[in-house]
């Protein structure tokens, strides 16, 4: 079979990175009810929390300033 008639996969232009929960370190699905907000103390890091950690009150910690929240 000639190369011109063989089906090829399209080239990937860029890689997509999904957000990760700051508390449990799991990937947050696009359809999940999650929240993102800047660190209340330093504002330099975006804290992302999945639905399960938000509703359960699992604590999170800012990796830049060490602030811990509910």
Summed up, what is this model?
With 70 residues, this protein is mainly beta.
Brief descriptors of the model:
mainly beta, two-stranded antiparallel ribbon, 70 residues
Number of strands: 4
Order of SSEs: EEHEE
Question: Which shape, going by the Cα principal axes?
Answer: elongated
Question: Helicity range of the residues?
Answer: under 10%
Low-confidence stretches: none
Describe the structure.
This protein has one helix spanning 51-56, and strands at 35-38, 46-49, 60-61, 68-69. It has 70 residues and is mainly beta. The protein has one domain (18-70). It has a two-stranded antiparallel ribbon. Strands 3-4 form a two-stranded antiparallel ribbon. The mean pLDDT is 89.
What topology emerges from the helices and strands here?
Elements: E1 35-38, E2 46-49, H1 51-56, E3 60-61, E4 68-69
